Amino acid sequence: MTLLPRRATAAATALTLATVLAACSATGDDGAPTAGTSPSSPSAGTADDLPTLTIYSGRNENLVGPLLEDLETAVGTDVEVRYAGSSELSAQLLEEGDRTDADLFLSQDAGALGALANAGRFVELPSGVLDRAEPRFRDADGRWVATSARARVLAYDPAQAPEVEGMTSIDELLDERYRGLIGYAPTNASFHTFVTALRVDRGEEGAREWLEAFADLDPQAYEGNNPVLDAVDSGQVAIGLINHYYWYERVAEEGADAVSARIHFLGADDPGALVNVAGVGVLAGSDAEQSALAAVEFLLSEEAQQYFADATAEYPVVDGVTTTVHDLAPLAEGLAIDLNSLDSLAETLALLDEVGLT
């Protein structure tokens, strides 16, 4: 595990934490204590009184490391972070069960959150925390909340495939003229999530039919979204399946004139336009539940949301926050599916193997 450096906590920080914890201490409608007031939760105190907050992060340290250092200051207690893939950490948390040291799970993907929520591993978050995010960006049962959102898009070379700009569905990719000219990342989690959404939306046979037709076109496999974008930008392929922020980050780094590739958002009700989220849940049985809830509030704060909008080119999930760096296109509603249903990764991987796309 990576132990982030402890920072000195000012009196104002302690007061902020005490306010957050007090806000989380109300009872629910049935008179039972909410997540912030479980009998085993420690009472609010100084930073030295609070147990270390252990975060399992499926988000890359390069992306969220600076933000989690700020989180440590805001929460006012020591924070220990373990970084690994979201699916790997989700599986480990399911195996560890009540024995886990983790207090908070920060996931890159809604599917990993859904797996833990459906297994009863998250506490229900207080309404005061959930209500910070737009309704579409939180679990209907209050077990997790998104911290940022991203959309699947088509990257395309306007010299080879200008017609992509008018596409509304992934079905339009299944054309003989694109044989050998589509790039994708078969081992990448975002591609797996797209395929899972395809299975949820069209059923197993509908997804298999699309994937077999796609595989028949000899798509070109790359190690990740950035290599796919590189291939489109250099003209090696005409179209690439990626997440939106890779293109925005490239434009911010190199300048719009230096990037020949363009991106296109498909129709909002198409699996190819899936809006997925990164998000967070508090582990049931946590010894640092109050600090974990304070951490969730921080991740939904204007400061953190601005970080995601500017530093990672993702979409904020809190109203009123907009990027000051990127010219992000408006985010459509996205495919109407329960994001918890994206937890069936094993079935997705099995299907991809069967159709030869691994």
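Next protein, fold it too.
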Amino acid sequence: MAQVHVIGAGLAGLSCAVALCRAGRAVSLYETAPQAGGRCRSYFDDTLGRRIDNGNHLLMSGNKAALAYLETIGAGETLTGPAQASFPFVDLERDERWVVRPGASPLPWWLLVRSRRVPGTRLRDYRSGLGLLFAGATDTVTDALDRDGSLYPRFWEPLAVAALNCDPSIGAAALLRPVLLRTFGRGAAHCRPLVAAQGLSESFVDPALTYITAKGGTVRVSATLRAIDWQNDKPEALQFDTETVTVAPGDKVVIATPPTSAQRLLPGLEAPEGATAIVNAHMRFDKAVDWPWEAPLVGLIGGTAQWMFHRDDVVSVTVSGADALAEKSADDIAALLWCDVAQALGQDKANPPAIRVIKEKRATFLQSPEQVSRRPGARTRWPGVFLAGDWTDTGLPATVEGAIISGNQAAIAAMTA
């Protein structure tokens, strides 16, 4: 049977391998790191004495590809979230708290109820969201949205930064549009926030590896692909650091690596350039945290941290578009983020818990209109070679949903070429 060689076991590579195995194809999955998962995994941290995620990832109940992937690998029940769509916020500057509660209908009738809206906003303020529907390929988020009033800094800005991992004046409006249409634009049933109940590996990685091997696939970690041998533009062999793998006639190769690695393997490949950082911090308390919200996350306005997550005695915060922050020392970052968490939870700022800061300086590609135009599709000019990754052209931002969709697209391309 012809083999599909999937290079990279991040979410894109895992979802590609899962889709291929589900279709009965022979799959070999290779990962340069000692473990699978890429930027979406869990590990035991000695400083905290807890198993933590290397980053915080939020899903929405409208993320159909991600939820279907979890169902396929038998992890559909491993996410947790509120029974209803609710998004709590804390304004640290004004010491105000509120919860945005979308309504059941795809039509935004819930905006007529003042208590469901962002405080200080008027009904007509929400019309600015229509600008996203008509935004062009070169428009940024700030080109499309009205920045006057309270709605922009209290809703649009944190949503855009979280989705695009960059300042809204840089981020492509065309990428934020499908996020809204697939979630808030379909009503409460599609925008319920969800997080991994135990950990990212327990939800997205470990069950996938079990599924792949149970279907006859092979998984090799600590396997770095150094080069591809070519014959008439077709891959003939994969040169790993410890072995050479022959690419037989009829075999396919899926490159599911970051864009810089893909360009090294495929000279001349056009891909997005530049990257933006994400900073996460995990804080372990002496006991289970008294969490007053039904949702497992809270938006923070007016501080350094943007989103705060909760799991038992660990509180985690995320800062997206964090290039400048990532240049600071871990101790300085920890101090800044603890001030935000302490205020939001009513804790003593002078008594910080154990804190682990994680910097991802190249967390996502720079999601500007110019770089979005450089995203390649799953098919390449090299016969039998395909691409997967959240940086490829999925029509979505570089998110969990986008990564999984990219893997699905590459699997379909490899099976139909």
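About the second fold: The chain has a mean pLDDT of 96.
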